[in-house]
Amino acid sequence: MNKKLLRAVLAAVCLAAMLLADAAPFSVVQTASAVTQAEIDAKKNEKKNLETQKAELQAQLRSLQRSKSDALAQKENLDKQIAVIRSEIENTEELIDQYGELIAETEGEIAVTQQKHAAQYELFCARVRAMEERGTVSYWSVLFHSADFAEMLAAMDFISEIMESDQRVIDDLQATEDALAAQQEELEGQLAEQEAVREELSARNTELSDQLDAARALIASIAADEAEYQKLIREKEAAAEREQEEIVRLSRELAAQQAQGAGTKGGYIWPCSSKYVTSPLGSRYTGIKGASTNHMGIDIGRVGYTTQVVAAKAGTVIIASYNKYRGNYVDVSHGSGNTTTYQHLSKISVKVNQKVSQGQALGVTGSTGVANGAHLHFEITENGQIVDPLKYLVDYIRGF
Prior knowledge:
Blueprint: H1 3-23, H2 37-67, H3 71-133, H4 139-144, H5 149-224, H6 226-258, E1 276-279, E2 282-288, E3 291-295, E4 298-300, E5 308-310, E6 315-323, E7 327-333, E8 339-345, E9 347-348, E10 355-356, E11 361-364, E12 376-382, E13 385-387, E14 397-398
Parallel strand pairs: 1-14
Antiparallel strand pairs: 1-4, 2-3, 4-12, 5-11, 6-7, 6-10, 7-8, 8-12, 9-11, 12-13
């Protein structure tokens, strides 16, 4: 081979190497992950805290059961245990979802790496095949048709560097692919661990059901004792009056702060999907001989422990708390002396001072507090006075 041909070949090889160099550099692009390990660790710590809370509540319940002196305290404890178990279930479901997102991200990165690896390898092989197919214009022809030994050594060094560079790219890509595969394997192991926890929480669902049955049985046992039940009703009514005074006070105080003046009437929507009213406002017969009570709102039935409770009217949350009679409950102020109340919730989804729009979720129906079965107790106050919700909630189904 003459020097002109050698220079032409080397120029072609250099050009190919330069083109490859432009395409070869590669690193895994780390996109902003929707889930971080810190968030997963936080969820794990939250789970441990919930387990600790439940253990403490169970110890308290054993003490209360030994004393047999305060049935309502037992009911309150059961309500809290139920809330913790529900939180444990939600916590684990969120953990599993987070691990699933991480695995999906890793699988996407692996797919990108594999595609770039295959494309790079094919480019390398195609270039080698093309040079071999040229016959004289090949790696070997460049080496053995050099004008002299020094020129051959220079060509060998040059070609060797190109091939080593190609191999390093392939090796780097393979190492990246292996690392991502290892990461996926690790995350799948973590997901398997969380799936095992999901199975454990399936048993917790049974435990939850047992706790709900125990809570209902406790209320039924109180109701079976007429004297004790009448005492409970008197206590509940007295507590309700005190609570109502506080609700009105808070509502008027909030209205004064916001300079809203008196609230407007009307404009309410149903606070849940059911319109089946099991108990109206006013005097009602409870089913216990000699025991009737002045019902301060309406009870809405045909709900379970997953039915969403929504704000009947836009306003500001003034109470989001637990009471041994009302259970978990929320009060929303709609202006001076105008409020709505939602009782016996299994879950509260809002906080005090939070502004809510009409139809916004406040929580989930349940049977916390003095409640025999899942239902929603709903009240409306206007100008500081209890009014009949059925004045505004039309198309209700009579269940009383």
